[in-house]
Amino acid sequence: MTYTGDVVPGGPSDRRDLPRLTIRKACVGTTANNVYLLTCARTGAQLLIDAADDPPRIMSLLREGGGRLDVIVTTHQHWDHHRALAHVVASTKARTTAAGAADADALPVMPTRRLSHGDTIEFGDITLDVIHLRGHTPGSVALVYDDPQGHTHLWAGDSLFPGGIGNVQEDPERFASLLGDVQTRIFDVYDDDTWIYPGHGADTTLGAERPHLQEWRERGW
Question: What separation in angstroms does the CA of 158 have from each of 22, 44, 56, 125?
């Protein structure tokens, strides 16, 4: 099975099997949000990134991974990334819900963990690092899995996409903040083979995007 990351709303998920972690990507809703299910290969513990929409599809995705859900992380406060959050929390009794501290109060379900830069999240044998990226929203977070037998995997929410950073509504201060964080906390830290899983659309790698950083800075978006 070859992972491409190409998914469409209501369509099948795409699956990537790492030695210790299985990654499933699905697309939901009218704004074509990506939803990611991470499954610990040994224990079956699972973490969901962005309960964005379409609760039945998300519940189906959970069943693909074995049905259990331990952690839900919401990458940021925008409505299209948490429309199904209350339903999924109620249906699964996930023990941990998490979001960036500065976005937590805007969510429909108050998280049990408020995340800060440098935190870690554990489920089963898997540890994810938390990166705080300021600009798209005040509390946007990305999650990083450093595969001990391969390259790094990074879930960026709406802060980094193929071709640029996330929307900052043409605010120059927010643009400088987000691009600064993306450069110093992602590009300056991780290698070119780091795989980027965004909140919408196709995946990319840092190597594909790195040559364009100056171009992004000059165009201002």
Answer: 22, 28, 23, 27
What does the pLDDT read at residue 138?
A: 98
Domain that holds residue 35: 14-219
The string of pLDDT tens digits covering residues 57-78 is 999 999 999 989 999 999 999 9
Calculate what percentage of the chain has a pLDDT beyond 70: 100
Residue 7 lies in a domain: no
72 found inside a domain: yes
- Specify the pTM: 0.97
Domain count, the chain: 1
Asked whether residue 142 is assigned to any structural domain, the reply reads: yes
Sign for the pseudo-dihedral over CA of 83, 40, 189, 194: negative
Residue 8 lies in a domain: no
28: left (phi over 0), alpha (psi -120 to 50) or beta: beta
Residue 195: CB partners within 8 Å, gap ≥ 6? Answer: 151, 152, 153, 154, 203, 204, 205
Strand, helix or coil for residue 132: strand
Structure token pair of residue 156: 């960026």
DSSP state of 43: T
CATH code for the domain of 41: 3.60.15.10
